[in-house]
Amino acid sequence: MLSLMYVSTARPGLTGSEVEALAQRVAQNNARQEVTGLLAFNSRNFMQLLEGVGEKVLGVMRTIERDDRHHDITYIRQDTRAHRECPDWSMRSLITPLTGLGSASVFTGSLPRQMELDTKILFTSFASSLTAAQEAQHAEAEQRAMQDRGAAEND
Ligand SMILES: Cc1cc2nc3c(=O)[nH]c(=O)nc-3n(C[C@H](O)[C@H](O)[C@H](O)COP(=O)(O)O)c2cc1C
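Output (structure tokens, whole complex):
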């Protein structure tokens, strides 16, 4: 079982809801390939885990590499594991950053119980990695996007 993880930089302006929709669409393709995993998005970067038969995972990864919704893909892990860490998720999206006391432990608790500790640590630190200033910027951008959508609906 090949287990691969990367981080990348999202195209500016990509929203959490677009990423959720993307993950739902690609889950069908992954299910056909028996590829499972997790896609985290913190409004600036992606972290994705893909696992399955080696050639299937690498095939999906070749498509992902060509996708212009992100760039600067950096592989942080590629190893063989005995068991899937996300056996029930064809592709689950987790939209972060985390805010508030206790949110990191809630986030970690929502990860699959089969997930190894090293993987849980990678995802939790990624999810916590935006600074307060960046969170404020992110909230403003979301607010603007909502207003723009509202204005477009009223046109
Ligand atoms: C961050 C990110 C993660 C993606 N993850 C997957 C994935 O797990 N599986 C997949 O098939 N496509 C994934 N895609 C989408 C592919 O790049 C591609 O758009 C999709 O496979 C549709 O390709 P098609 O239109 O040629 O069928 C991802 C794209 C991005 C930007």
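The first helix runs from residue 16 to 33.
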